[in-house]
Amino acid sequence: MSYAIGVDVSKATLEVLAEPSAPSRTFANAKAGIVELIAWLVPMKPSRVVFEASGGYEKDLLFALVAAGLPASRVNAQQVRHFAKALGQRAKTDPIDAAVLQRFGELFQPALCVVPSAAQARLRDLTQRRVQLVNLRVAEINRSYQASTPLAASHRRVRAALTREITRIERDIQRCLAAADADAIKATVDLLAQTPGIATVISATVAANLPELGHCSRRAICALAGVAPIADDSGKHHGQRHIAGGRAVVRTALYQAVLSGLRHNPPLKALYARLKAKGKPSKVAMTACMRHLLCMLNAMVRDQQPWRPAPLPA
Questions:
Q1: Orientation of helix 31-41 relative to helix 59-67, angle to 10°
Q2: What's the whole-model pTM score?
Q3: Nearest-5° angle of CA 183, CA 189, CA 195?
């Protein structure tokens, strides 16, 4: 019988449960340990190999599983933890986590992972690094407002160094897009950059960090980016909708695109003005514009068509 296999990933080890009635096995989370694990898994022909996103410690395992033709599923750690609580499992150890992942995979058969191309992986790392540096610069600017006079020069030097590094990263993004193996991702970036208010860096950030763009429904793509409104209703209670979860890097890029689009993108400008005229708070109107823009980008990539403003939603 083919079982789902649960793998609890930590920095040093991989705790693996292959069958519900069998004890778990421990492998090193290193090249030799992963090779040994793959050799052990291949003859079993599992229906899924399920593991949590673990801050990057799972990447080598993911690449090895996909290269070996094994069905790898990387799942949301919070979902799995809620599942464990629903089972009444309050204790948390590596073997217990592997068992919970095994049962989660068996019941839900989560979606398989698609490994990005080398060019897309490089572009994703560069765009995420740029976001990190921009956040550091913003924090340094905010600290400088409260700095004493003797420290002002120090703050200026740090801001200048961060700005230079951001410029280097942006040059690296351009070089990455110009590489010979980046034709597919560059075509998507160029397509998105035709949208008024979206420059190359923002389009590269969206394309690299949201590879599902063009392959999902508008509701699914909005949920992935974290701009889908979540209902909070029960009986006669109708709570306010909020957004939650999703990919923060993509959401930030969409917010920046909308800020620019309110000046240069007539459909977004009209949608924002109409929502404000109805009394909607600015943040609600901005989020609606982000959602509308993302749906447009999704349709552009799906149909491989340049920017053509769609009729605004009622």
A1: 40
A2: 0.83
A3: 145
Torsion of CA 58, 63, 65, 71, to 10 degrees: 90
272-309 pLDDT per residue, tens: 999 999 999 999 999 999 999 999 999 999 999 998 76
Domain range list for the chain = 4-108, 118-182, 202-303
Residues 6+ apart with CB under 8 A from 293: 195, 254, 257, 258, 261, 265, 268
3-class secondary-structure state, position 13: strand
For the residues of 243-304, what is the DSSP string, one character each?
Answer: ---S-HHHHHHHHHHHHHHHHH-HHHHHHHHHHHHTT--HHHHHHHHHHHHHHHHHHHHHHT
d(C-alpha 103, C-alpha 94), whole Å: 14
* CATH assignment of 4-108, among 3.40.640.10, 3.30.70.270, 3.40.190.80, 3.30.420.10: 3.30.420.10
Place of tokens 């950030």: 205
